[in-house]
Amino acid sequence: MTIAVINSGGANLGSVVQALNRLGAESVLTRDADVIRQASRVILPGVGAAAWSMNALREHGLVDVIRGLAQPVLGICLGLQLLFESSEEGDTPCLGLIPGRVTRLPEAPGLRLPHMGWNQLKWTTDDPLARGLAGDEWFYFVHSYAAPAEGAVATSEHGREFAAVVRRDNFAACQFHPEKSASAGQTLLRNFLSP
What we know:
Elements: E1 2-6, H1 13-22, E2 26-30, H2 33-38, E3 41-44, H3 50-59, H4 63-67, E4 73-76, H5 78-82, E5 84-87, E6 92-93, E7 98-104, E8 115-120, E9 122-123, E10 138-143, E11 145-146, E12 154-157, E13 161-168, E14 171-174, H6 182-193
């Protein structure tokens, strides 16, 4: 099994590859469309701004490649947001694989942005990514924008409820960083890698 980690230029690429290595998975960091198409699993990580990442994907001819993938795909952090139709951040058209618009989390006294830290999830649907998780685990988040909670597989909360895990056909994604979420994140990544 080969896992293609799409080189979207994000700062978390190395930690994603290291997390996969710890699980004994063979992964390759790539922008090569053929490698991505032929991989048995694909991960779309991302840290930073939606417009910048979408521009990078367009420059490397990967937008239609990602849209056409039939194997399991996992978006991480910004990778989740890019699966939606658009983002309020820079009024950016995204991949359009999941209906909805990503919006900025609310600012309020005592509510820090970006949302940076450990949160629990509320699983709304039984999902293969949750296999072996008790439901009381903590996951590590770093983000200022979030997808709508409606239709999410799992939600979390920071000023408002938002999508923490989403799934549509072969595309799944998590807003948190499983590669930085200790054993809970490792379990989720292992579930993604399982046949």
